[in-house]
Write a structure and sequence with these properties.
TIM Barrel, binds zinc ion, alpha/beta, globular, 10 helices, 256 residues
């Protein structure tokens, strides 16, 4: 049993064959899938998918890329949408200073709106962070001090300091197919500094397909390759890491 803790099943790449994608996931032992909201305007589509498949859950939130187009959404609006039983997290949210598709200022505002929703609902945050380690640490630590919250740093590709300080405030760290990429040694080097009970795996499908499927459309069944790589790095049995990451997922997210 493996959980794909982060993918985007509402994206066009899955428009024609989602039934087969879910079926292949099950055949490969990927028994649960969390599909992540990036646009409030597409939330109805996400919910439709989560309602259709009993093993798929979803989140509600505005990706940092959309902070300008949709970031005016209020905490109250997020909380209202999060009341559906299939919604188990808030996000994805965070900071992306690599692309800066929205201004850093708007991204910070949007992020804090989501953090408050997580603080008020108790739902975990799904956090995206790229080239923003300093600002991310500052916001996480000051907001956590004001009122604790839980969550996961998804598709982790930031520095060790951010990883360790995230763990210090109880956050989880999720690795994607990036750890199978040849040039990602810096990300692999972080893995053994982290406690096993804070690790998750994800695809971030349709993006970032792991080796040996690199370059293809990614899908939840491919998370097995990321899990294998992670098991090799840590030097634990794949079976053991499957149960560890699945338990971690259920400790963080309430699927009942
Ligand atoms: Zn992301
Ligand atoms: Zn994502």
């Amino acid at each position: 049993m493996i959980v794909d803790s982060h993918c985007h099943l509402d994206f066009d790449e899955f428009r024609t064959d989602l039934d087969e994608v879910i079926e292949r996931a099950l055949e490969n032992g990927v028994t649960e899938i969390l599909t992540i909201c990036t646009h409030i305007s597409r939330f109805h589509k996400i919910l439709e998918i989560a309602e259709k498949y009993s093993n798929v859950w979803c989140t509600v939130g505005v990706h940092p890329h959309e902070a300008e187009s949709e970031g005016q959404k209020t905490t109250e609006h997020l909380i209202e949408l999060s009341r559906h039983p299939k919604v188990i997290g808030i996000g994805e949210t965070g900071l992306d200073f690599h692309y800066n598709n929205s201004s850093p200022n708007k991204q910070c505002q949007n992020f804090i709106t989501h953090i408050v929703a997580a603080q008020e609902t108790g739902l975990p945050l799904v956090i995206h962070s790229r080239d923003a380690d300093g600002a991310m640490i500052e916001i996480l630590e000051s907001e956590y001090k004001a009122c604790p919250f839980t969550g996961v740093m998804h598709c982790f590709s930031s520095g060790l300091d951010l990883a360790l300080r995230s763990i210090d405030i109880g956050l989880y760290i999720s690795f994607s197919g990036i750890i199978t990429f040849k040039k990602a040694q810096a990300v692999r080097d972080i893995v053994n500094h982290l406690p096993l009970n804070k690790l998750l795996v994800e695809t971030d499908a349709p993006f970032l397909a792991p080796v040996p499927n690199r370059g293809k459309r990614n899908e939840p069944s491919f998370v097995v390759h990321t899990l294998k790589e992670l098991a090799d790095i840590i030097n634990v049995k794949e079976q053991d890491l499957m149960s560890i990451t699945t338990n971690n997922f259920h400790t963080l997210f309430d699927t009942n």
